[in-house]
């Protein structure tokens, strides 16, 4: 039997485990990638100035408030690295595994806070954990793996309550998929929260997971700290060009958002007809409560060339997380899941 890694690299396998965009990237991004082939022997811009300028223009902020990185993963690592080893880093659980991964690997002190009973990041509990030793807080919104979000007013109240010496990282990797009007976007309010860093990525809705491009928005002082410790050429020329072109194609983002909403609703209706519970999601994945252990279901699906997330990585023994995909792949998953349960 092939390993999970081999299956993950097999194009015939249905990958509902990585939250990739089934529509792929925009045509403009593809053309931008091709345009860089004749320049592959040349180093890229050290500071991704063109991409930073495009992001600044897109969000109507100054370029000094923009940082670009080798995916959000690199930026998360830099933020942890930039936090004193004597300081505590608070993060929700279950949430994006890279928070815990970087805290452990960089020898920092982590403090995890469980989600609420309705699978949201518990801001009240996190606020209660803040003390003189707190240096950094991670908030994933929408939260991965549950897809839940915070209400705008609640998040504003939380940010106001956090001492300015504590940096708050608002990880919005799935920002483009959110349709709720009461969602806190924050990029137009950076001046109100000098200790806030917002993370976004080109890996999800923009369909560029393979080139690794992410970015941070925040106070120029915080951005400067990241620039001091990043690698010299941390974003390759293909990533810079593709991300800049993708940003200009918001029609593709709108299409992806509408596609995701339609297929997500379709999946939830069918899953609920099976007697399963879907946690309301504002992302491109669904957290599904299961009667059997999630790892057992995931193992059976893997035998049928379908990959989903389950087990410790999503923090719930009786759940799976599935990516919203095409109708054909969604139907295949539903048929196989029905047979398994």
Structure, described:
The two termini are 22 Å apart. Helix 2 (27-35) packs antiparallel against helix 9 and helix 3 (49-59) packs parallel to helix 9 (237-247). The model is unreliable at 1-6 (pLDDT under 50). The strands form three sheets. A seven-stranded mixed sheet has the order 2-8-7-6-5-3-4, with helices on both faces. Strands 9-10-13-12 form a four-stranded antiparallel sheet, covered by helices on one side. It has twelve helices and 13 strands. The chain has helices spanning 4-8, 27-35, 49-59, 71-81, 97-105, 123-129, 152-161, 220-229, 237-247, 250-273, 294-303, 327-340, and strands at residues 14-15, 66-69, 88-93, 109-114, 134-140, 167-171, 196-201, 214-218, 277-279, 285-289, 306-307, 309-311, 316-323. With 341 residues, it is of the alpha/beta class. The protein folds into two domains: 4-24 and 251-340, Aspartate Aminotransferase, domain 1 (Alpha-Beta Complex), CATH 3.90.1150.10; 27-248, 3-Layer(aba) Sandwich (Aspartate Aminotransferase, domain 2), CATH 3.40.640.10.
How would you summarize what this structure contains?
38% of the residues lie in helices and 18% in strands. With 341 residues, it is an alpha/beta fold. It folds into 2 domains: 4-24 and 251-340, Aspartate Aminotransferase, domain 1 (Alpha-Beta Complex), CATH 3.90.1150.10; 27-248, Aspartate Aminotransferase, domain 2.
